[in-house]
Amino acid sequence: MRQIFLIFILGLLVLSSCRNDENQSDKKIFRMNMSAGLSSLDPAFSKDQSTMWMCNQLYDGLLQLDSQLNILPSIAKSYSVSEDGLTYIFTLRDDVYFHQNEFFKNGKTRQVVADDFVYSFGRLLDSKVASPGAWLFNGKVRDSLPFEAVNDTTFVLHLKVAFRPMLSLLTLPYCSVVPHEIVEHYGKDFRTVAIGTGPFKLKKWQEQATLILEKNEQYFERDKQGNALPYIDGVRVDFLTDRSVEFLQFLQGNLDMVSGIDRSFRDKALSYRGGLLDELKGKVTLQRKPYMNTEYLGFSMKKLHNEALRDVKVRKAINYAIDRKKMLVYLRNGIGIPAQYGIIPEGVKGFNPSVKGYYYDLGLARQLLKEAGYPNGKGVGVIVLNSNPIYQDLTEYIAKSLSEIGLQIEVQLNPGSFLRESMAKNRVDFFRASWIGDYPDAENFLALFYGGNSAPPNYTFFRNEKYDEIYRKAIVAKSDEDAGRLYTQLEQIMLDNAPIVPLFYDELIRFLGKRVKSLPTNSMNMLMLKTAQLD
Predict the structure, then answer these.
(1) Based on the domain organization, do 188 and 308 belong to the same domain?
(2) What pLDDT does 20 receive?
(3) pLDDT (tens digit, 9 = 90+) per residue, 75-92?
(4) Nearest to residue 367, comparing CAs of 304, 310, 321?
(5) Distance from the CA of 349 to the CA of which of 13, 291, 487, 496 falls in 20 to 30 A?
(6) Segments forming the whole domain that contains residue 370
(7) What value does the mean pLDDT of the chain take?
(8) In sequence order, what DSSP letters do the residues of 325-383 get, joined into one string?
């Protein structure tokens, strides 16, 4: 054991030495770690955070998001949408070039043209590619000629049915442009080549060890003052799997950022109220922002085996019996926002605090149980709450909370994959779940309760004719105001039927080192390194 410990310490010292040598360079390199690893640099497979983060540095699409989730031009300098919402016309910039590669016709690079988007979007729908991003266009675009290049700088997207959030979908890394000749030359190995148009180019990727990106000197974007982007010279990514080691490296100055909070170092960094500990103040910057993730408990409305849970008053009683504020303080060091409204989290356009949700009220919870015919929980029987081991502390807290109104909760823990399958096949009555928004439109959260959707995303199997009617109107609404009004109606219908227990809206947490002057982000937790600044 002593020998293993010495080897571990020696490894840290060597790593620290390498970093110190790197720090002596006059180049500004952003240093970070990805404990979850990285499986691909192909945007068609950007389904996890690691891949999305890196694809955001290497590629561009038609549109992009800013720190407030506003949709902005990128390779498309302008666009228009037809009155019926079926035709999207994009005018492309003529100064965007792919990163250099020897297999371009001239052995260097070439300009991006509309045909590149026809190819890139079509690739997402190609069954041979098997992209997990096919859902973006499946059932939404026309069967014949869904993507059209009118000329080199005019790209047209044809929808089968109007879908208001389409522009939001086009900001996702899945919709990045790739060069057909390079993809076709490398085939599946394109995942390690990564030829895009982005602010950084791939210099080296030693899988599970190190990834290095270098500045794209020919990048087309500039800031508002006309300065070329990106500001920094490159990015170095390590793949330390131990989060406590990652945080130690950060404290030693060898990493510029740690994203997220892990149990292994949570109490060493944050107070119980969610602020930095005194010993870190002045040395570390805490970046905190609403995150597009809602944690909740769900009921299967299709077939509830526990008869008591079929009564909406019982489900409402469960909602009122949980002290969400106390839960966040004791279990998450104050990280998160109590979900006293609906499913739409703070930070997403469409969030409305006027929605009448649930708050902590034991008296009201007991009253509702009594009205339902279950005074003090008598006659309800054992309610099984299904979760995975990661959330054991959370589900145990909930079980204890519900015991205060006489409900007996049995927590059943299963691997995440098994639980998701059980939820999808309607094998569980009551379960813990979360929904991380795929795109920055409240519709993405409200789709969880649309009767036309199966599981996923509709794990509660919620069905309501009025809800479905309003939902169909919302997805074709022509203005933000109209959509927002309909979204609020949808949330209230859902909450009145109580198919879920909203627990908390998550928060994005980042620890930044002293070298970091600026690192923008947004509620999608995007890594926006093209505008990052280092001392």
Answers:
(1) no
(2) 47
(3) 999 999 999 999 999 999
(4) 321
(5) 496
(6) 291-508
(7) 94
(8) HHHHHHHHTT-SEE--S-SSPTTSTT--TTS------HHHHHHHHHHTT-GGGTT--EE
What's residue 210's pLDDT?
Answer: 97
Express the helix, strand and coil content of the chain in percent, nearest 5 each. Answer: 35, 20, 45
Distances (CA, A) of 413 to 419, 427, 444, 471: 9, 14, 28, 34
The stretches in the chain having pLDDT less than 50 are 1-11, 13-14, 16-18, 20-24
- Of 300, 337, 296, 336, the closest CA to residue 319 belongs to 296
Question: Is 334 found in the same domain as 204?
Answer: no
- Report the domain count for the chain: 2
| Domain match, 356 and 456 both | yes
User: Residue 74 is encoded by which pair of tokens?
Assistant: 């990128």
Contact 503, 277 (CB under 8 A): no
Residue 472 lies in a domain: yes
484 and 393 together in one domain: yes
Q: Are 364 and 379 in contact (CB under 8 A)?
A: no
User: Which 3 state secondary structure label does DSSP give 222?
Assistant: strand
How far, in Å, CA of 80 to CA of 467, rounded? 30
Same structural domain for residues 471 and 520?
Answer: no
pLDDT for the residue numbered 25: 62
Cα→Cα distances 509→4, 175, 266, Å: 32, 27, 11
Q: Are residues 192 and 74 in the same domain?
A: yes
Residue ranges with strand state E in 60-164:
63-65, 71-73, 76-81, 87-92, 147-151, 154-158
Q: What are phi and psi of 67, to 5 degrees?
A: -70, -15
**Residue 419 within a domain:** yes
Same domain for 523 and 463, yes or no, is no
- Contact of 115 with 149, CB cutoff 8 Å: yes
Domain CATH number, residue 443: 3.10.105.10
Residue 18: other Cβ atoms inside 10 A = 12
Specify the amino acid at residue 119. Y
- Same domain for 504 and 517? no
Note whether residue 129 is domain-resident. Answer: yes
* Nearest in space to 180 (alpha carbons), one of 158, 199, 195, 201: 195
At 197, which CATH number? Answer: 3.40.190.10
- Residue 209 inside a domain? The answer is yes
Cis, bond preceding 456 (omega within 30 deg of 0): yes
Model pLDDT, residue 373: 97
- Which residue spans within 360-456 are E strands per DSSP? 382-387, 408-413, 430-436
Helix axis angle, 480-497 relative to 465-474, nearest 10°? Answer: 160
